[in-house]
Amino acid sequence: MLTGVNIGDYGKGEFGNKKHEHTFLELVQELDKVDGIHRIRISSIEPNLLKNETIDFVAQSRTFVPHFHIPLQSGSDELLKTMKRRYRSDLYVDRVKKIKSVMPDACIGVDVIVGFPGETDELFLKTYNLLSELDVSYLHVFTYSERPNTEAVEMQGVVPQNVRNKRSKMLRGLSAKKRRAFYESQIGNELEVLFEDENKKGYIHGFTQNYVKVKAPWDPALANTVHAVKLTEIDQDGLVRFTKNEKAFMA
């Protein structure tokens, strides 16, 4: 997992130079050459730092998987400006469309904040409606909370806590629908699952390349191994079986 703060700015300020001596794309290209690594995921990367060239490279990469987590925070350009974000909603939409154009089965996660000062009902609905229409796979929903010594804590338009909670619940419900729709789109696909090594209530869990979570009855022989599977159905709990001995389920 490539992780950090503003990872797309990799190379900026290197050797005291404000310009990029190296770029994030160059880093990704070099890592793709490393032997012995079979999967690399890019952690949260802001849309303005996720360039077309990087997306295109991941699409044909040997090791980088089709999974992106891209913070949005708000679908309102007014709030994005107040938050001092370096992008606007139209750029976000463009990034999602670009990813899906070259990787139709890519999983796209979204960070979003509710209840930021100044978030009216109208501005919240802009966020909700934008996310509802976008071809994204799940949401990480954060409820704004005051922190001392920050600019936001002094801002006008404080959103009542009960309203923040209501909006959070709405987006979490939307996230569940998005994840369900994404999982349904994967039915019939043959994917590789890398199983982990923890026994969780009698099950072992793993992930496909595009971040579909799969579980199977606990079998220590599966730990840290990769298995090709075909996802076949979703049951009442939102789990999808795969065909290998009917032992695993999408979680």
Structure description:
This protein is of the alpha+beta class. The longest helix has 25 residues, at 161-185. The chain has helices at residues 24-31, 52-59, 77-82, 89-102, 121-133, 161-185; strands spanning 67-73, 107-114, 138-143, 190-195, 203-208, 213-217, 226-234, 240-242, 249-250. The strands form two sheets. A six-stranded antiparallel barrel has the order 4-5-6-9-8-7. The mean pLDDT is 91. It contains six helices and nine strands; from the N terminus they run H-H-E-H-H-E-H-E-H-E-E-E-E-E-E.
Task: Indicate the proportion of strand residues.
Answer: 15-25%
What is the averaged pLDDT score? 91
Largest sheet: 6 strands, antiparallel, barrel
CATH topology of the largest domain: Transcription Regulator spoIIAA
Estimate nothing, just give the exact number of structural domains.
3
What is the overall silhouette?
Answer: globular
Number of strands: 9
